[in-house]
Amino acid sequence: xxxxxxxxxxxxxxxxxxxxxxxxxxxxxxxxxxxxxxxxxxxxxxxxxxxxxxxxxxxxxxxxxxxxxxxxxxxxxxxxxxxxxxxxxxxxxxxxxxxxxxxxxxxxxxxxxxxxxxxxxxxxxxxxxxxxxxxxxxxxxxxxxxxxxxxxxxxxxxxxxxxxxxxxxxxxxxxxxxxxxxxxxxxxxxxxxxxxxxxxxxxxxxxxxxxxxxxxxxxxxxxxxxxxxxxxxxxxxxxxxxxxxxxxxxxxxxxxxxxxxxxxxxxxxxxxxxxxxxxxxxxxxxxxxxxxxxxxxxxxxxxxxxxxxxxxxxxxxxxxxxxxxxxxxxxxxxxxxxxxxxxxxxxxxxxxxxxxxxxxxxxxxxxxxxxxxxxxxxxxxxxxxxxxxxxxxxxxxxxxxxxxxxxxxxxxxxxxxxxxxxxxxxxxxxxxxxxxxxxxxxx
Length: 443
Prior knowledge:
Radius of gyration: 32 Å
CATH architecture of the largest domain: 4-Layer Sandwich
Number of strands: 22
CATH superfamily of the largest domain: Metallo-dependent phosphatases
Shape: globular
Oligomer: single chain
CATH class of the largest domain: Alpha Beta
Structural class: alpha+beta
Helix content: 25-40%
């Protein structure tokens, strides 16, 4: 109290006392004496503790400012990802999700040993009709690349603090987001001498199995990871789906392109239609064609396994029309030079085109309609899943001019090819080889 004048020491507690009386009014005369007593006690307490309270308030205000500043400078998070899709010889697409709305970009540098910061690197943004956009879903296409080259990529962003004004958006500071893998992607090259990939199928959200089957994979030893359907049992919630499909092995999918093939279970669930956003393809549909080295890969989608009128689909299924549309595309795709000039021709479809007495409707449909086109196109082998067991059908067994291999749900399949042919090996979760096959002109 010695540092304050008498008038000052009186004035401030007096104001506080008035506030006290305002907050706790005494309207009845019966309690007036008690009110005055409370007033005196309050006055004494406030007068004695004014300096202490002033310090507490100052500290509290300082903490508020520190917390506000920390919030403004927070780093844009990565909720799931990144993973890489839709790779070709000159492009790839980096995808991830964030918890907050972020204005993000990707910077890219050749994997040539130079320091990333040795020069300004090109930036790539998510754009819509000429406008760079912010959001929580980040889908950024990196273009202008060279075939068969390795590229390092980094993710940057600014948290959107206020975008309510159409003429002035306020952001937090730019920050780099961490990537769990090395952040290096190699573009495809049709002139490469070989092609090597790993295939998984029918994981159905069993993350431990997913990790067990991929634990021995060295990222830079394969060209892509093929996820051949039913990685989840249905797509009811996209966050959960992305977590299972891409978030389970973040170090792998950030450094290896992944190719998502739709299974019949992934046609189910209230958010099934959103998955194409997170697994973009050249066609905009789950079916598409790409080429790596000597191998052309036809990715096909058999849709559901039961007739459209089945009660399980609640009147929502229209897969006959969808497959018919796809058949028209397939007839053109097999004439594309990307396919016709490939020494090794591969078809990938979750449900195998096996026509047998016990086959279900979807399997019979693709066998009757897709198989004749594939036979004529000179397919070397079809890779499938769906049956949760290992099935190998020799060429000619059921109208197929090529072998069909349905991989077990507990095995990973490794595929390696050169211009002369291919070798396939499957391994269980303990890394033990369970089967092997070879084919092509060099067999």
